[in-house]
DNA sequence: TTAGGGTTAG
């Protein structure tokens, strides 16, 4: 009689991976015990690994089961190391490493062990420990293993030792493809995009992971154009993309506010029948939200079976910056109800949500709940949000006393929010103070908030480069414009259209408020400059006003997005209801 | 049964 053999996982183990509760896991455990399956050490190993890796919240139960085993196999101990660094418990991971090296039945760490040990070290973030582990790797002879090497490279990069990796792994041996990919990824993550790309271009056998690492690097460092160009290159070279590639593509579209390209990417995902898991789903929600299509963002959001803190936070952030503050707060309540723990970013979204509808007291309560209820430490961003919250609501005195009571030094954005409010609420004295602080902090180098200065040209002329950039998408193509920039090939047509807009604005009674646009350009040019509708800086009052008018005159919906808000202009009104 | 590449704010 032929004995029953399973190819791959035992059906019970497959079932185990879909368990939602500890009770279900225990049931399967009991069943496997009754069926005598655990006499096979391999089966016990499968059980422990499956629970630890797929159901990390019940990892302790898997350890209990492991303890019943006198001689746990190496693979299981390795899996437990991996499971623990995955749930950010590096010390436990070290513990299982010690179980391996001190085992009474002569276990020897293998290449898997070191891969996981190195990842554990990266999490601990202690250079001495990392170097000690590197020593062990060499001692055991695993420094030649591509996977171990690749983990070492990313660990060194995280420690800020990218150059060390380059010396060891690029200069001495000809790197294999796994090592090269790791180096591309590590360089890209560290922001060294130029050398990442050089290495990438030199690689004879780039696989999908290499392309994805390069693209992700561009996205992470805000180079959406390069990321999309790389994606087009991928397409033209016939490289088959996967979910991770599309996450980066969507993120690039989100950075650009490129709705048409984002929609195309969504269709493409469906066409390829890629699996829209929680990560890809969150990226979709974020893309639609950042491109201002909140209806579609929420449609995707509700269609997702699994939602994690990223998904909820993206949707909340989208609602908040698009002016739906109450909906943002409501979503937060639902998130808690769903049992998803908020993180620091969630509170940024929530506080922006409070600001856009002027809910100061609610904002205060949420801010306090961060440490009191959720054990989260408010960061400079949260303090900045609070200043913006008081400022937008016109409660300037509270804003300044909040700034004065802050335990951390306020950063330029906090003063910027206050300065903006001072302009709207015409508080010259506080405005001057805020401006002074900004110049102190930045020396005017970034020039971000200088367009809010009201005192005329003299003071601002000391400020050298005012940097302002706008992007806009037309027919699936993204265009970038800088102030005073005439390099666009269709400049003549653009100029003509701008003139038409100017003319019609003038007919409608518009007079450019050039005082708030203090760039190093001629007076006539200034008037034109105020008409550019999409800005990366905070939308100034003139832009706000003029965009309202354009939306009415040309009967167009206009979505303007900048670093911290989106504005929807229709029929001469703006979605911000005055809170901007 | 275990290894590389992925998302959120400012």
UniProtKB/TrEMBL annotation:
GO biological-process terms attached to the record: RNA modification
Q: Which UniProt keywords apply?
A: Repeat
Please report the residue spans annotated as repeat (PPR): 176-206, 207-241, 308-342
- Give the Gene Ontology MF terms in alphabetical order: RNA binding; zinc ion binding
PROSITE patterns assigned to the protein according to its UniProt record, in alphabetical order: PPR (PS51375)
Q: Which segments constitute the DYW domain?
A: 534-580
Where on the tree of life does the source sit, at the highest rank? Answer: Eukaryota
Record's keyword annotation contains Acyltransferase: no
**Family in the record:** Belongs to the PPR family. PCMP-H subfamily.
Q: What is this protein called?
A: DYW domain-containing protein
Organism, as annotated: Daucus carota subsp. sativus
């Amino acid at each position: 009689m032929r004995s029953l053999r399973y190819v791959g996982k035992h059906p019970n183990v497959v079932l185990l991976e879909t368990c939602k509760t500890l009770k279900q896991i225990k049931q399967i455990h009991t069943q496997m015990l009754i069926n005598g399956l655990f006499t096979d050490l391999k089966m016990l190993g499968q059980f422990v690994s499956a629970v630890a890796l797929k159901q990390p919240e019940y990892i302790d139960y898997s350890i209990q089961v492991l303890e019943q085993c006198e001689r746990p196999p190496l693979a299981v101990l390795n899996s437990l190391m991996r499971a623990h660094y995955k749930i950010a418990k590096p010390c436990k991971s070290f513990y299982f490493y010690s179980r391996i090296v001190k085992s009474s039945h002569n276990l020897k760490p293998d290449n898997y062990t070191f891969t996981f040990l190195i990842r554990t070290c990266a999490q601990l973030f202690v250079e001495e420990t990392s170097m000690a582990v590197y020593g062990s790797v060499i001692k055991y002879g695993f420094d030649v293993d591509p996977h171990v090497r690749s983990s070492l490279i990313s660990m060194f990069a995280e420690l800020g030792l990218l150059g060390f990796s380059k010396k060891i792994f690029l200069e001495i041996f000809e790197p294999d493809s796994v090592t090269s990919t790791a180096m591309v990824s590590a360089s890209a993550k560290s922001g060294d995009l130029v050398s990442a790309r050089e290495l990438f271009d030199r690689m004879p056998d780039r696989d999908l992971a290499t392309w994805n690492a390069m693209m992700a690097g561009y996205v992470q460092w805000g180079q959406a154009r390069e990321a999309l160009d790389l994606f087009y290159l991928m397409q033209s070279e016939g490289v088959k993309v996967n979910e991770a590639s599309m996450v980066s593509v969507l993120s690039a579209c989100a950075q650009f506010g490129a709705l048409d390209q984002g929609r195309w990417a969504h269709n493409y995902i469906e066409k390829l029948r890629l699996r829209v898991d929680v990560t890809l789903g969150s990226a979709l929600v974020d893309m639609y939200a950042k491109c201002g299509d909140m209806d579609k963002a929420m449609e995707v959001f509700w269609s997702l079976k699994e939602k994690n803190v990223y998904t909820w936070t993206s949707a909340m952030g989208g609602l908040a910056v698009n002016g739906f503050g109450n909906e943002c707060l409501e979503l937060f309540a639902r998130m808690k109800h769903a049992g998803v723990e908020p993180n620091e970013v969630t509170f940024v979204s929530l506080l922006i949500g409070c600001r856009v509808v002027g809910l100061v007291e609610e904002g205060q309560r949420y801010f306090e709940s961060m440490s009191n209820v959720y054990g989260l430490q408010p960061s400079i961003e949260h303090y900045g949000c609070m200043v913006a919250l008081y400022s937008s609501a016109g409660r300037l005195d509270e804003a300044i006393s909040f700034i004065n009571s802050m335990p951390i030094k306020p950063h330029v954005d906090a003063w910027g929010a206050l300065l903006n409010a001072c302009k709207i609420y015409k508080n010259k004295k506080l405005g001057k103070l805020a401006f002074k602080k900004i110049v102190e902090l930045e020396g005017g180098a970034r020039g971000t908030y200088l367009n809010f200065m009201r005192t005329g040209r003299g003071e601002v002329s000391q400020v050298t480069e005012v940097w302002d950039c706008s992007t806009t998408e037309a027919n699936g193509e993204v265009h970038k414009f800088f102030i005073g920039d005439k390099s666009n090939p269709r400049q003549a047509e653009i100029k003509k259209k701008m003139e038409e807009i100017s003319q019609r604005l003038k007919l409608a009674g518009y007079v450019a408020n050039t005082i708030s646009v203090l760039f190093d350009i001629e007076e006539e040019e200034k008037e034109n400059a105020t008409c550019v509708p999409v800005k990366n800086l905070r939308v100034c009052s003139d832009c706000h006003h003029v965009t309202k008018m354009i939306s009415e005159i040309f009967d167009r919906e206009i979505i303007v997005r900048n670093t911290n808000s989106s504005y929807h202009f229709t029929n001469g009104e703006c979605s911000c209801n005055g809170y901007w």
